[in-house]
């Protein structure tokens, strides 16, 4: 990138989301989210245990297993999903620590595609756009469909390159 060039807004806000994710102490995935209205940054959040409670790096992950029927190539298949229930997701923290009035008509930039639960919460939060980088294939189909029903722009930045100091290998 030419030093005289500015980053586009999508890159700028996603870079911030990735830097926010470095605050996470989760061993499985660092996720950051930012709330933006126009070009104004209104809030940031990352995934982690509730304040004052030991996090995954101190107490280990609390893994819950769930099973879901999914149609794969016309066949019903049971899919196993694992998730840590010690951690509050970045999107949930963002909604907890921002005001509804600020969210009305705003965009959320999040390092990872929101899960089904976070997508439901975002859909009722007043936001009009979700921009993410890393896909979360386990919930993509139903999340995309629901966002479309709500009229929320839901888009992935496929060619985005995160800042090197924020990169973490993630488990899908």
Automatic annotation (TrEMBL):
One of its GO terms (biological process) is pyrimidine nucleotide metabolic process. Residues 8-154 form the CMP/dCMP-type deaminase domain. It comes from the Bacteria. GO terms for cellular component: cytoplasm. InterPro entries: APOBEC/CMP_deaminase_Zn-bd, CMP_dCMP_dom, Cytidine_deaminase-like, dCMP_deaminase, dCMP_deaminase-rel, Deoxycytidylate_deaminase_dom. The active site is at 91 (proton donor). One of its GO terms (molecular function) is dCMP deaminase activity. Zn(2+) binds at residues 89, 115, 118. Its cofactor is Zn(2+). Its EC number is 3.5.4.12. Keywords: Hydrolase, Metal-binding, Zinc. Belongs to the cytidine and deoxycytidylate deaminase family. This is dCMP deaminase.
